[in-house]
Amino acid sequence: MNQLTALYFPETTIRTSQAAQELLFFDQISYYLPAEDNQPDETEPEDGLCRGYAPVPFTDDLDRFRQLIRELKGNEAEFYSGQLSSMTLRYLEDRDESTVKNLISTISGQGNADKADETKKREELWQARLLLQLAAMLAGEEQDLQNELSALSAKKVQLFDDLKGEEEMSFAHGQIIAPQNFSPVRPEILCRAWAKLFVADKRQQEHWILNCGLPETADILFEINESLSNQRPTRLFRIPLPNIHGMEKDDFLAGRTAFRNEARDVLQGFKEQLNDAAINGLQGQTLKNCTDLAAQWTRLFDASGPWGQDILPHGQLKTDQGAPHLEVYLCNRSLPDLLTHCSRSKVRTPLDQKPHFALVAVKSTKPSTCKG
């Protein structure tokens, strides 16, 4: 582990604001794309902090996938209730020779009983990518709406303060608006679709750490870990993250660079501890070392800043939410084990590969989410 990197789970086509807080800790965050050449509008290729790739590329079938997305757009409500499979099958049954059903048959081989399993896998991957693509579109539209509402609310507050002769902050273009933590699809369905891509990803061994923006998705993995090993994951540490709402992106990036320079030794210590935990599991001094590093991080963080405003997107002061924190857990099983089980796939990690213990990072505003 030359860098502190994580793979975002289970959302795809990540926008900058979704991972900005965690990027104070991580060197880089990777994320899956449902299809290649499908970068989000807010991708920042100049800094390379977020990197997306398609684990199961369409190659020659990319244009057909895009056409299908255009035809399915408008049926997103079906996805919200978790009816992707039935909707897709109904849709496929009523289409002509250019449909995905015929496309899948062409790819997998029509009428060949020996390829029945391969055909099923391809159908599942098609459905998984369809769900993830439409879920990303829904999430993007919802976030755009929240951004517009935040901007309107800020303008209203600004106008009111101008009338009173008071100065107040305004949200200009380019400022970060804290993302809303929600999923347009039931988390268990989104996780299952994402897990199917992970199982098929030839680069899966590169990833040791999953970064979960929603605690609910981490809980799904924790429950799987407990069902497989009869043990709950162990929380290694909990560290504060910055409030970023209302910050200019350039200011955040400058603050990030300054803080990480100051915390260079602490970050190196975390890297070594996580690397050792992923390879060897929980050792005698692991928790103590991580606790000491977290205390050093917290002291440096308290002296850093200023960061963004501690307010909600609509200009309301926070009342029932705590400060953002990053919690990192060590599981008793590997990521391939957890996600294979999540995907309900029969594929298993080859015996000649020694998988790493899974590390799961969770962003939380709760006082504590430690469950043992």
3D architecture notes:
With 372 residues, the protein is α/β, with parallel strands linked by helices. The protein has twelve helices and seven strands. It has a seven-stranded mixed beta sheet, with helices on both faces. The longest helix has 49 residues, at 116-164. Residues 42-46, 79-101, 103-111, 168-173 and 311-319 have low confidence and may be disordered.
Short description:
The protein is α/β, with parallel strands linked by helices and 372 residues long.
- Termini separation comes to 26 Å
Low-confidence stretches: 42-46, 79-101, 103-111, 168-173, 311-319
- Mean of residue pLDDT values: 79
Strand content range:
5-15%
How can the largest sheet be summarized? 7 strands, mixed
> What general form does the structure show?
globular
**Largest beta sheet: strand ordering:** 3-2-1-4-7-6-5
Q: What structural class do helix, strand and pairing data support?
A: alpha/beta
Total number of helices: 12
Number of strand elements: 7
Report the order of strands and helices: EHEEHHHHHHEHEHHHEHE
Q: Calculate Rg over CA atoms.
A: 22 Å
Specify the helix fraction band.
40-55%
